[in-house]
Amino acid sequence: MAVQAKQRGLLSDGRGSEWDFRLEMVRLHVTLAPMGASAYTEIKDSLRKLYLEDPRPWLVGFSGGKDSTMVASLIVEVVASIAEQQRKKSVSILCTDTRVEIPAMVEMVEGTLARIQHFSQRHSLNIEVNLLRPPPEESFWVNIIGRGYPPPNRTFRWCTQRLKIDPVGAFMRQRLGHWSEAILHLGARRAESSTRAQTMAGREKRNGLNRHNDLPRVWVSNPIEFLTTEEVWAYLLQKPNPWGGDNRPLYRLYASASNGECPIQIDTSTPSCGNSRFGCWTCTVVERDKASEGLLASGDERMEKLIEFRETLLEFRDPAKGWRDSRRMNGDERPGPLKIEGRRELLKRLLALQEETHLQLVSPEELLLIQQMWKAARDPDDGRGVARIINKQRGVIMSTNLRELNRLRELEEEVAREKAVNPDTLRRMVAKVEEYSESHRAHGLPDDLLNILKDDLEAQSTAQKA
What we know:
It contains 18 helices and six strands. It has helices spanning 2-7, 18-32, 38-53, 66-81, 103-123, 140-146, 158-176, 194-201, 229-238, 248-257, 290-297, 302-317, 340-357, 364-374, 385-391, 402-419, 423-438, 445-465, and strands spanning 58-61, 91-96, 127-132, 182-185, 210-211, 218-221. Helix 2 crosses helix 9 and helix 14 packs antiparallel against helix 17. It is mainly alpha-helical.
């Protein structure tokens, strides 16, 4: 529908005239009139009954796209219609921010969440909003520039799990520690694709709910499962949001980006950003990021530099370009992590992009973690690499205590001589222990330390043979 509207000239300048918009609303009303309001009323009646008769708390997946916006609108409207003394249920709206989302979508989502929270507090709805982010040690840039992970592809899509699924899962597990069970409302619809229809049809339901694949105490509800895309838009555009405002900006964003959104990720069966339109501007899983290109064409000039940087990520992922090691960390002779010089170069370009776009792309905390991980890399950094790069960027200062760093290196060399260990090997192992201590976990540390030892011993053996 958005594409058809665009072809008619609607929103061709990224904003559209009020007259064109009203014409489109008339077309929608005429096209969808046979459906009437009965389906929407049935959905709200079902949600109201579930709220009053089932004591389990609610979770609501929210991505900011049309489907999740409709589900959030329905739920807020239903809760607001219930007498205040009966609003006992806890309702938590969950949204994930990977920190590399398309800027226009981030702005819209944050504005919507703020309005929902304000509306809930003003009317005592007991609805809270939660904008979930991956911890800094698992961020996109820490993984790529710090650990040297290659940018994701279809066979190594490490980003979805770390940036989207894990933050939601951690939140749910924390809440489930206080709850016995919970109900999760999602905006999934059968009309989205034949694959989605088959998946949803194959799930066993109990009282209209199906059990979550990975969280057995969570039951999933799909209130708009049987609605078409046109019916979703009709609902969103023919009535204001309960928290105020309307969905014309959302419609215009879709018209600019050619429709679609990246759904909130709760498990690997949910379509990832690689199959959706509104996802991460850094996504290297898709061949073309049509949403970013569409937003640029509609006048969002920020997207030009972001699209160019996505091409940079593709270049660094390509083993033929020379930025990746020829060996993996386990010693396999296959393309491995980004070399330390590749990570340095990528950080330089990222900081330059940050200055050009005036967007905060990487945080100071992430930069400190990147430096820590460089010390554990193959051909380890001396502990000042990030600071040297940052100090060259205009207006950005990151100081280092050179005396303390030099003293630390002297101690490391002294211990290495006593233990007959290569100083760089010792530094890498110490840095790896510090990296794990930052995340307050130890699982996997022995294997990583063993890999460092094997890696350096193999490198020394190769050098001696040469």
